[in-house]
Write the structure tokens for this entry.
Amino acid sequence: MTNRLRTSLALRVLLSTILLSSAVIWLSGSILNSRVAADVKQVNLDSSINEARSTIVSARYRLILAKSGSQKEVDELIGEILSAATTVGARASGRELALLRGPMANPSEKDFTTTSNLVDPGSLPEKFREKVRSTSELHWSYITIKYAGSLQVPAIAVGDIVSIPRSGKYELYLLFPLTNQNKTLSLISRSIILVDVALVFLIGLITWLVARQVVRPVREAARVAEKFTSGDFNQRMKVTRKDEIATLGLSFNEMAASIQQQIMRLENLSRVQQRFVSDVSHELRTPLTTLRMASEVIYSSRSSFDPQVARSAELLIGNIDRFERLLEDLLEVSRFDAEVAVLEPVDFNLISLINGCINDLDLVAKEKGTQIIFTPYSQDLSINADVRRVERILRNLFNNAIDHADSKPINVQVEYNDNDVALAVRDHGIGMDENSLLRIFDRFWRADPSRSRIRGGTGLGLSIALEDARLHDGELEVWARPDKGAHFVLTLPRVAGNQIQSRLIRLEPKDISI
């Protein structure tokens, strides 16, 4: 579900709208429910007080008229009052009556204490009764009517003092059960909840419909963009409306058409460049072979030449060597650009290959006043890779370190585990700044083109080394600082076709971290 939320804009909008609208509707419903409940309770209270006042006034008047009557007439009158007070009138839930003897009643006379329908007199709180006895005004309170047994009903109690002839003052209470009121409030609450749920559902449905109208073109644009990215440049959005989304679709189609034209132009240019490099490289091989044969003849006879002519013969053979390397590098670059370079993996001992490259370059290193220091943990490290390309990476890294070591030692380190192998080449020479570091793998770029060199490179070595590493699904990284040297780290999978899983050698050298 979490993943679905991250990938679906419509679902996020729908859930956000439902949550926010639910909160607003719940708050509004709560306020409305509280307001309606308060109004219903107030109406019920006013109605109860008015009915009680009318009943008590009527009872008082009849008791006053019965002062001159006999005891039997008073008893009959009390019975009539009790019957009239408990008759169900406009209030469907009816009412109960409690006539309780007060402290001011005559104890020697008959006790008229009674309640209707076996109401427990203890239902009336003592504090409420004291309040009724203390004044001659009508008082009310919310109570719980307790019937014989365990039945309890919430109610409103309204009471006042009445005088019974010859018996003294009694407390007359009318009890109005709130059963119907609570049922009404419960019905209102359920209705509000149902309305709230219906509103949330309708709001969610409306939001989904609106979001669908907006998201559908976006999804269509994403689908077209995905196919466009995969290479189908003829894909376009279908525009059938004239609203803002249609404007977006038209702009998207115009952008796609422009990108298609640019890509086609660049593809044509790339093909022309690849063909040019490949054709030139191949065409130059024949005259270059002739030049090499002639130069070798001249070079072999240099001892009989004038010193200046002999030096020219040495320069000629050196530059022909460099020219051949440049042609080889250009052919390799054209293969990378055409994406036709393939691996030819075999099993070989990487330690032996490193030692072989170091021995081959030992004389060159001595001419530069430096040496390559390599002390492996073991003499046996078998990997499965393209030995020709790995050797070319090593030679490029070693040659680059020798050229820039500034007569300081070069350290080579190898680390490995079951899945990966890493090689680091650390020189302590001139180094380079951060701007140069960003371009070190660019083709034909040199950190210091004005610096004179006895052995000039082609400017393609590091670029080809990076391509060879990535062709193995590996990586070649570099760290460098001015006057602190450079640190190249090559990481390869031990088996061609696997992915590297760890970086075994830190890019920043240890001697810098200390």
Notes: The radius of gyration is 52 Å. Residues 88-92, 450-456 have pLDDT under 50 and may be disordered. Residues 9-65 form the longest helix (57 residues).
